[in-house]
Amino acid sequence: MDSSERQRLTEFLEQLTYGLAEAIGKNCEVVLHDFSDPEKSIVAIANGHITGRKVGDTVDVLGLQLLRHQPSGDLLNYRTETKSGKVLRSSSIFFRDETGKIFCSLCINLDISDLAHLQYWLQDLMGPLENGPHEEFEHSVNAVLDRLIQDSIHSTGKEVLDLTREDKVAIISYLENKGAFLIRYSVDRIAELLSISKYTIYNYLDEIKSKSAAKELARDKGNADGNKHREP
To answer: Mean per-residue pLDDT for 92-114?
Structure first.
């Protein structure tokens, strides 16, 4: 797909964003993300009052994770919640380039808060909801990054001053896995909050990648040895 084709697709999806929201109603937020710039990924949004977001806002934590570990298909009919407690029925449809890499997504968030209170009686009408991630929609990339960092520190059960080297390596591994390093200048912010140098963070990342590569090599060797034993 060349740049002109992608531009035409983006223009069509922008029209579809507003058309879908108009057809479904004010309780349906439709969002178009362009992941070429994750920090300002929202290029079109209708009924943004549902999550409080607007054009130019950042991708959320879940979006970063999906960019880091791209799913094989779309995500349909999963449950999310806003900071204000609204219950949403969400679906994310992904668009990929010729290599299979996701470059944009169309997300539909239907506010079913009122219906959720009546779900026992309306279950046949609504259909079952799959358990999904608890997501808080952020307005700025700094808020997304700070939340990821705080979550990573919380996962250790310690305060920053009490963190060991192993704890900090685990935190960097957590952040790398969540896609935090896709954010520009994330290393500066992480270094500041963990009271370590950028050089130390890069060393930790190299260490994590080396251990991961060693595990893959050992697993491949184990599979190869197992195949040898099974040969007649």
So the answer is: 91
